[in-house]
Amino acid sequence: MPQTITDDLFYELALTLIPGVGPQLTRQLMSYGGSAKNVLLMPPGRLRRIPGVGPKAVTALTGAERATALSRAEKDLRQAEKEGVEILFYTSKRYPHRLKLIPDAPVILYYQGPADLNAPKVVALVGTRQATDYGREQTERIVRGLLPHQPLVVSGLAYGIDIIAHRAALQEGLPTVGVMATGLDRIYPPAHRKTAEKMREVGGLLTEFPFGTPPDRYNFPARNRIIAGLADGTVVVEAAIKGGALITAELALSYDRDVLAVPGNLGALTSEGCNALIKNNKAALYAEPKDLEELLNWDAALHQSGKFKPAPAYAPDDFTADEFALITVLAGADGREAQMDDLAWKAQLAIHAVAALLLGLEFRGVVRALPGKKFALV
């Protein structure tokens, strides 16, 4: 959908383009400033009083680097508007709810495509770049098994299992999103451009990196956390004992997301990683669609929503971005209840703000307070 370019978005994008101001510092600044505009117009004296803001950050936020970032933001917004790219700051209602729950979520995303990043069901398929015929067959079989659920299929657009998963999803008519380690204007690898163009039309391309970012090797591990964070569960199809697919699986586990792995022949290098995940009880064995359906609660009795999607009674447009972030966390909580500190951490909000927001939601009959400073959806 076309994005409205606002004053807020301009300053939010500029804040993310200032060197040395990473995701954690951005959230800290936002919690004190209230908005990106307030942060970027804040005098040096006030910035110095914010915990975690050192001399270098103050200089960057008030000097030439800020001016450069503002100019770059204006240019990038024009390019985004021209190319139909949606820019999502972490406070946006359209920012992926599942991704916002991970502690190292990116503060900015660039997205191009019609697929819903907050689809009721999302699954990631990952694996080795050196995929075998067995890996190809298993990936295509898994995608066919997903058809009754019509999920969003996420992968990394890389050689091997990733591109096989994307192409199989397109073939079966399922929406698929490729998470990139480059800017949206730098398709990598170039050999996958045709598939990427098709995904732009019926699926999507997603990255945290601004226009012009090349395929630097350090970007790929960062890309993997977005793949893991976007999905209800990750399926590793083929993987060596070391590599990006295993990194994605470990990240998914650290985010308390489910992982499945397809077993392979003993001694096959491309199956060593999958077999090790299963052996070490880090992944459930995937043999048939039922394995995934049961693990992710995608059976008929629980088909109404994905693991982290809020109950249908709560619509994003009825709440502020921060209120809906808390509702999202509560909807995904075990037993639908959580402590205030845990809510603040998972929703990436200041604790004092969470207390006020919960009180407001309680007055509206959305949230109820429980013993032990716990809260739950009504």
TrEMBL record:
Q: Which residues form the DprA winged helix domain?
A: 320-373
Per the record, the domain of life is Bacteria
Transmembrane regions: none
Which Pfam families does the protein's record reference? DNA_processg_A, WHD_DprA
List, for all copies, the residue spans of the domain called Smf/DprA SLOG: 87-295
Q: Which InterPro entries match?
A: DprA, DprA_WH, DrpA_SLOG
The cross-references to NCBIfam families, in alphabetical order and at most eight, read: dprA (TIGR00732)
Q: Which family does it belong to?
A: Belongs to the DprA/Smf family.
**Protein name stated in the entry:** DNA processing protein
